[in-house]
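Here comes an entry:

___
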Amino acid sequence: MKKAYLFPGQASQFAGMGKDLYESSELARDLFELSNEILGFRISDVMFDGSDEDLKQTEITQPAVFIYSLLKARLLGDAFVPDAVAGHSLGEFTALVAAKAMRFEDGLLLVKERAQAMQMACEMKESTMAAIVGLDDDVIESICAEIDGIVVPANYNCPGQLVIAGEVPAVEIAVERLTEAGARRAIILQVGGAFHSPLMGVAQERLNAAIDQTNLVAPICPIYQNVDAAASTDPDNIKSNLSAQLTSPVRWTATMQHMIADGFDHFTECGGKVLSGFLKRIDRKLETESV
């Protein structure tokens, strides 16, 4: 059996996340207090007692999901023995820390910088994302390419589910045309901006500088990355892909297909259930679990 661990991105947050862990585990308390110190504010208070709206703020969501997902992996103790790791968008940073390619402190500072850079990019130009369900990827790609303005595929989540991103008018037109083309659902999402699109170019420049200054070593196992859906253990290649991630689509379907082709047959999701759901749509025979 080849075992992979998966780490979710934004949208896996929930009110009260981690409170039970803080109250029952010394390891969890130490990690939360260290996080509060690194971030310069008590993110634990927002995670435990904040509203769903509080947790939707990009500058809160990203570090919150990162901390919670990594904690779920660390609480597995000696049972956490990955043959490979992968993370969806933000989750790629969590996966790298879990696989010991980065120190927790460095990973959290990178996530903080990433969240602030993305928030800045969102405020510079009005943009959004939309989930498209029930159309082939090539149909969505073709329709997006025909529309004036910026609208591109952003998240290839699983067969029949793709998220597009771009300028608000272009996304609205795309939703209209994709519905006419037969999409079962085409819904504009309540997000702050067009993640994984060219509109994140300014954020990418800022994040690049932070990535360049971060000490990253070879992980204890391969990481399958979003940009090329391929396995890597080379620190320079990993850094290059991390830098490109903000303006490139998340190739999650291809990533999972490559892992399956490489013999992975057991997947554990740390900190959510969304990725396990995607996997079942890719291959129902796979063994999946969530912690």
About this structure: The first strand starts at residue 3 and ends at 7. The mean pLDDT is 96. The longest helix spans residues 104-124. Strands lie at 3-7, 84-87, 127-133, 151-158, 161-167, 185-188, 223-224, 231-232, 266-269, 287-290.
